[in-house]
Design a protein that fits this description.
The protein is α+β, with helices and mostly antiparallel strands and 287 residues long. The protein contains four helices and 16 strands. It has two domains: 6-19 and 108-208 and 221-285, no CATH class; 25-102, no CATH class. 14% of the residues lie in helices and 27% in strands. It has a six-stranded mixed β-sheet with strand order 9-8-11-14-15-16, with helices on both faces. Bound molecules: zinc ion (ZN).
C-alpha cells in the first residue's frame, strides 16, 4: 500500500477534461465485477433498470456505454450488445450471469455509499482549517476485510483552500482519522477503492478595470465566481485524480462533487458512470 496525495486542480485543467462515456467497452476488466452470487440488478447509463434477479440483494451494476464502436463499420457505433443481451434475458425472465458481462460498473457496498453522503456533509461543515465549511476535501479508503466485511476508513480532512487564490485543494486519503480501523481489515484484507469530495464552496472574484487614486476607470467591473471544479462547472475527477487512478489500477476511484451533487466513478482516463448523490444509497428508488 503506497501513500499518495490527491491533488486537485480546480481552475482550468482543460488538458484533461472528464470525457464521459467514451468507449470503455474494450477496456473493461471483468474480474473486478464478478458477483459470487451470480445475480445482480443492472442499470443503463441513464439509470434505467434493464435487468434484475428478483431478489433484493445489494449488488448493483451499471452497463456502459449505451453505444460502442461497430467492428464491421469503422467510424460507426452500434448499441452495446451486452445491454441488448441483458434486456433480452430479462424479458425471458431468466437470470443474467454476471461473469459473462464485460462492461458493467459495480456500485460499492451500501456502507461505502452511505459514507459518500456523509463525506459531503463533513466537507460542507466547518473543520479545523475551514471555519465556514465547503472549502476543504473529505475522503477515505474502503477495503474488504479477510472475513469479507467492508471496512470504511475515513481520512483526516484536507486543509482548507480558497478557489479564488489557491491552485488546488488536496487530501491524503490514506491519512486515516482512526488508524486502528486498519486492524479490522486484517493481513489478508484488500483495499477496494478510495473516494474524496470536491468541495462546494464558491468565492466571488472581482475581475476588471484597475482603480487607482485620482483616476477614473471605465467599463463595468466584472464579477466572476471561483469554485472547485472544471471551467464548465462540473466537478468530476481532475488530471491528478486520473494520475492517482493510474497508480492504483484494479481499485475503484470515486470523486463526489459537493456542489454539482454527482458521484463520479472513474478509471485512469475516463469517467465511467455518474450518479446523483441523493440516489446513491438507494439507486433502485430512482424513477
Ligand atoms: Zn480530486
Amino acid at each position: 500500500m503506497g501513500r499518495f496525495i490527491n491533488q486537485d486542480d480546480f481552475l482550468g485543467d482543460v488538458s484533461n477534461p472528464p470525457s464521459i462515456h467514451r468507449f470503455m467497452y474494450a477496456h473493461a476488466r471483468p474480474t473486478f465485477f464478478v458477483d459470487p452470487s451470480g445475480r445482480a440488478v443492472f442499470f443503463d447509463e441513464k439509470g434505467n433498470q434493464i435487468g434484475a434477479d428478483g431478489k433484493p440483494d445489494e449488488d448493483v451494476f451499471f452497463v456502459v456505454p449505451s453505444r460502442v464502436p461497430n467492428p464491421e463499420k469503422p467510424g460507426k457505433t452500434m448499441k452495446n450488445p451486452e445491454l441488448e443481451r441483458i434486456k433480452k434475458t430479462t424479458k425471458k425472465k431468466e437470470f443474467v450471469v454476471v461473469e459473462e458481462q464485460r462492461s458493467a460498473v459495480q456500485l460499492p457496498p451500501r456502507e461505502v455509499r452511505e459514507e459518500l453522503v456523509a463525506a459531503v456533509e463533513r466537507s460542507d461543515a466547518p473543520s479545523a482549517t475551514d471555519p465556514v465549511g465547503g472549502f476543504h476535501e473529505e475522503g477515505g479508503v474502503f477495503a474488504e476485510a479477510s472475513d469479507g466485511r467492508t471496512i470504511v476508513i475515513p481520512a483526516q480532512p484536507g486543509d482548507a483552500a480558497d478557489p479564488a487564490v489557491d491552485t488546488h485543494a488536496e487530501i491524503d486519503v490514506f491519512n486515516s482519522k482512526d488508524p486502528a480501523l486498519w486492524n479490522d481489515v486484517g493481513a489478508d484484507g484488500e483495499i477496494r477503492g478510495t473516494y474524496h469530495v470536491h468541495p462546494s464552496g464558491t468565492r466571488e472574484e472581482v475581475v476588471g478595470p484597475q482603480q487607482s487614486a485620482g483616476s477614473t476607470s471605465f467599463g463595468a467591473t466584472k464579477r466572476s465566481k471561483a469554485f472547485f471544479g472544471h471551467p464548465d462547472g462540473s466537478q468530476g475527477p481532475s488530471g491528478m485524480d486520473f494520475d492517482a487512478a493510474r497508480v492504483r489500477q484494479g481499485q475503484q476511484h470515486i470523486v463526489v462533487g459537493a456542489r454539482d451533487d454527482k458521484v463520479y466513478f472513474h478509471d485512469e482516463d475516463r469517467v465511467l458512470v455518474t450518479f446523483p448523490v441523493e440516489q446513491i444509497v438507494d439507486p433502485e428508488k430512482k424513477k
